TrEMBL record:
The lineage of its organism: Bacteria, Pseudomonadati, Pseudomonadota, Betaproteobacteria, Nitrosomonadales. Pfam families: PilO. The chain crosses the membrane at residues 20-40. Keywords: Membrane, Transmembrane, Transmembrane helix. One of its GO terms (biological process) is type IV pilus assembly. Gene3D superfamilies: 3.30.70.60, Helix hairpin bin. PANTHER family: FIMBRIAL ASSEMBLY PROTEIN PILO-LIKE PROTEIN-RELATED, TYPE IV PILUS INNER MEMBRANE COMPONENT PILO. It comes from Sulfurirhabdus autotrophica. InterPro entries: PilO, Transl_elong_EF1B/ribsomal_bS6. This is Type IV pilus assembly protein PilO. It comes from the Bacteria.
Length: 207
């Protein structure tokens, strides 16, 4: 088929065209339809498909995470129980309000029992309260031998109630003795009324 034959093709009479031009025209039309379909429809569908695939991946990861949590739920529950038991044991090591004077006396007796001389034993005038417990620092200055001071700090650490020794400083004293300055912090748990009062005060402060 020559170039003249192509130029002589009548587009108003396509039905009488030779086979080859018809095939070429149909191929061009089909290609145009594919391009138009991709441009106006399929490209948007590809974007939606990619978005759906990403969402599926995210949901799959979330499902796997939740599945692991569900599988280990009994373990987590047991861990929570263990934590509650441990917290309860620690809480029982804190005295209540009525036991605080006895605890302070125990600290004093621990020093006297080791033959130490108290030059200063001064509880703070006011407790420092947190959400669940109150702290009362006691400023102490004692003199004695190195061995007796060490034994005293060991005795305090072995009290049935929690007592921490802070800001410890040891200096030479008279007659081959040592002088120790230390802050013994004692703790107690707050009763329900005090906790409620704290929460109420905190809410009022936030407002």
């Amino acid at each position: 088929m020559t170039l003249d034959d192509i130029n002589n093709l009548d587009f108003k009479d396509i039905g009488n065209w030779p086979i080859l031009p018809k095939v070429v025209l149909l191929g061009l039309l089909f290609t145009g339809i594919l391009v138009a379909g991709y441009w106006f429809d399929w490209s948007d569908q590809n974007v939606e498909l990619e978005t759906a695939q990403q969402k599926e991946s995210t949901l799959r990861e979330a499902f796997i995470t939740k599945k692991k949590l569900a599988i280990n739920l009994d373990t987590y529950k047991q861990q929570l129980k263990d934590i509650e038991v441990s917290f309860g044991a620690l809480l029982r090591q804190l005295p209540n309000k009525s036991e605080m004077p006895a605890l302070i006396t125990d600290i004093n007796q621990a020093g006297l029992g080791r033959g130490l001389e108290f030059e200063l034993f001064k509880p703070a005038p006011q407790e420092t309260k947190t959400e669940f417990y109150a702290e009362l620092p006691v400023t102490i200055r004692v003199t004695g031998s190195y061995h007796d001071i060490g034994a005293f700090t060991s005795d305090v650490s072995q009290l049935s109630r929690i007592v921490t020794l802070n800001n410890l400083a040891i200096n030479p004293g008279k007659n081959n003795t040592l002088s120790m300055d230390v802050t013994a912090s004692t703790f107690r748990y707050l009763d329900e009324d005090e906790i409620a009062s704290n929460k109420k005060a905190n809410k009022g402060g936030k407002k």
